[in-house]
């Protein structure tokens, strides 16, 4: 019998969720998308996760907090797992995401300015005239 180091698993899905910071529902979702490889199951059908899967889930969670799409995360995971990767491939994905974030921020800033201007023009009193609704109807 080999001694298992403490905390090395196997972990059930609830324990994996706690250790990774990813909900059990999202773990199942990531498995269904192929972002997380199919894990071993017990004879009773319970999933068993090890340290590698926990580490992968943390990677996915961090990538999601940075706003990467599932497709981008899939690419990043493949690159992360490929020790022969070119960092230029990773940088290309990151720079494309930065550009997309910049575009979305600019769009949101334009929305904010338009809405702020409409709100500024509205008296906000009991009269039915409302520049906000007029602006939306244009």
Architecture overview:
- This protein is mainly α and 138 residues long.
- The protein has two domains: 1-68, Orthogonal Bundle (Multidrug-efflux Transporter Regulator, Chain: A, Domain 2); 86-138.
- The protein is built from six helices and two strands, in the order ααββαααα.
- The chain has helices spanning 13-20, 24-33, 51-65, 70-81, 87-121, 131-137; strands spanning 40-41, 47-48.
- Strands 1-2 form a two-stranded antiparallel ribbon.
How many angstroms separate the termini? 75 Å
Helix content: 55-70%
Kindly estimate the percentage of residues that lie in beta strands according to DSSP: under 5%
Specify Rg, calculated over alpha carbons: 23 Å
| Biggest beta-sheet profile | 2 strands, antiparallel
DSSP strand count: 2
Question: What's this entry about, in short?
Answer:
The protein is an all-alpha fold and 138 residues long. It is 63% helix and 3% strand.
Features of this protein?
about 140 residues; mainly alpha; two-stranded antiparallel sheet; 2 domains; Multidrug-efflux Transporter Regulator, Chain: A, Domain 2
How would the blueprint of this fold be written?
Elements: H1 13-20, H2 24-33, E1 40-41, E2 47-48, H3 51-65, H4 70-81, H5 87-121, H6 131-137
Antiparallel strand pairs: 1-2
Helix pairs in contact: 1-3
């Amino acid at each position: 019998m080999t001694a298992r180091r403490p905390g090395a698993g196997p972990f059930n899905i609830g324990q994996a969720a706690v250790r990774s910071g990813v909900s059990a529902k999202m773990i199942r979702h990531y498995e269904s998308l192929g972002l997380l490889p199919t894990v071993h199951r017990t004879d009773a059908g319970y999933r068993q996760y090890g340290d590698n899967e926990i580490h992968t889930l943390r990677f996915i969670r961090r990538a999601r907090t940075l706003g990467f799409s599932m497709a981008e995360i899939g690419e990043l995971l493949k690159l992360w797992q490929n020790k022969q990767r070119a960092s230029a491939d990773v940088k290309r994905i990151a720079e494309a995401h930065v550009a997309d974030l910049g575009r979305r921020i600019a769009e949101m800033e334009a929305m904010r300015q338009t809405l702020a201007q409409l709100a500024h023009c509205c008296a906000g009193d009991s009269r039915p005239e409302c520049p906000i609704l007029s602006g939306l109807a244009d």
